[in-house]
Structure formats: structure tokens, C-alpha cells
Amino acid sequence: MTVLLPAFHSLPLPLVQLSLAAVLKCGQSFRWTILPVADDTEYRLCLRDRVVCLRQSPTTLFYRAVYPDPQPPTTQLPLRDSETLVWLNDYFQLDIDLAALYDEWSTRDPVFARMRSRFQGIRILRQDPWENLISWVLPNMSYAVLLNLGANL
């Protein structure tokens, strides 16, 4: 049986405003799965009642939500898609003009001005507080266990 996935929606968003490759690999969140797809990369996250799938071009963020069975009625899909977009705007804080902040920081900090091109599109994620806590505690706990094991050898 072939499963037809929904088409991607597009959101005009240049890489200077959000770089998925930088943000989702920098250690803020460990829930994203990164998959090579043909000559592209897809980022996936299980979110409550859906899987959010993202792709990116230099000028556009592409997103879609995939739902488990039973599928929502087709009459509810526009509402569900708008919920996904609201979540994306909140999670990545897309209401903040990152390029303008980089410009402001560059005028105040000459070191940042020299380095800003290396860090384009990096944002602080607005994660669920529980996810944020667990993302910090679990890696630190495993590191502490390894330190204790090394001390006992």
C-alpha cells in the first residue's frame, strides 16, 4: 500500500533569518531527526498529534504535518495546517527580525561583527520547558556517570 504524504507549504524565509542546519544541530534540542532525502535534507519532529517535516532552500522554509491514522477529516486539514504554522512561528520565534538584531549587535561589538557570517540564522528555540530541562539534564547525567566510572577504574 502506498501512502500519499501531504504537499509541503512554503513560507518565505531567508537563511539569514533561520538556518535549520545550524539551529537544529547546535545542541538546543535533541528531538529532531535529520534525514537525507534525494539531494535535500528533511528535519522531522514528533509533536503531540502530528509529525512536523521541514525542508529549506536559501529563501524559503517548507513545512508539512503528517498525521497518524485515523487521519483527520479533510475539512479539518486547513485548521491543522494553520496550527502547525502557529507552532513553527512560536518555536522558532519568527516574529523577531534576526537580521536586524545581528546588525544592531554588530554596531556594538566588533568581534561579533567579524564573526556574524559564521552564525547566520541561529535562533534560540522556544521549547516546552520540560523538553528544555530534559535536553540539559540527560546529557549531563550521562557525563557524570562516565566521570564516576572513570574515577572508579
What does this entry look like structurally?
The protein contains five helices and five strands. It has a five-stranded antiparallel sheet, with helices on one face. The protein has helices spanning 20-23, 77-91, 98-108, 110-115, 129-152; strands spanning 9-12, 33-37, 40-47, 50-56, 60-66. The chain is globular, with a radius of gyration of 19 Å. The chain starts with 8 loop residues before the first strand and ends with a helix. By secondary structure, it is an alpha+beta fold.
Task: Walk me through the topology.
Elements (H helix, E strand, L loop, with lengths): L8 E4 L7 H4 L9 E5 L2 E8 L2 E7 L3 E7 L10 H15 L6 H11 L1 H6 L13 H24 L1
Antiparallel strand pairs: 1-5, 2-3, 3-4, 4-5
> How would you sum up the major sheet?
5 strands, antiparallel
- State mean pLDDT (0 to 100 scale): 88
Shape: globular
Radius of gyration: 19 Å
Task: Name the descriptors.
alpha+beta, five-stranded antiparallel β-sheet, 5 strands, 153 residues
